[in-house]
Amino acid sequence: MEFLAPNSFNNSAARSVDEWAGQIQSVWVQGTTNILELARIVLRARRAMGFGDWARMWRSKKLPFAISKAKMLVRVGERLGDLDGQTFGHLPSGWSILYQLARLDRRTLERLIREGVIHPALTEREARRLVAQFRGETLKTRSDRAILRERLRRFAQFVERNLGDWSARERELATEELTQLVDHIVIADGGGRPNGHSRSSIARCNSFTD
Known about the structure:
Elements: H1 6-28, H2 35-48, H3 51-59, H4 67-80, H5 85-88, H6 95-101, H7 106-114, H8 124-135, H9 144-162, H10 168-188, H11 198-206
Helix pairs in contact: 1-2, 1-3, 2-4, 4-6, 6-8, 10-11
């Protein structure tokens, strides 16, 4: 019986990784018109390779996209890989959009294609809403805190751009209005009536925009 040295096992695994990477690369260079075949080959690679080799292939940077994209393609391959070319031709070409549509059950997907609800020009946002609707999910949106930070950031930018053009009366008016606003925030936060520190509160509020 012939025994192989540890390096022989490693070299064999490395060749397997190189072979799969080469096959994926050869489909990738054909462009976005071949997303279905790309999803199929990535799915075959994932099923054929052990977890260690799979992870090593993406760490090797041999491919032009990351493992996060590969996971999307695996899902697309699992759920949409058996579609015929004519049906697939009615789908958008972006893999992030296809990833969303792959969450639909097959009957719903095919019906929405026939009805023209799903079409090549469908955007990712539209796909997300569509999938949420048919899966009975609430579409996740930005958090209230994220919205607040964004609005404060935009207001701070507005002030910075225009402050130099304001008259003394306009600066005084802005200060009065902002002081009242901070007073409302302090009271709503359970801090009672403001005690003369409203202007320092404005400075603290500005830290949200940093």
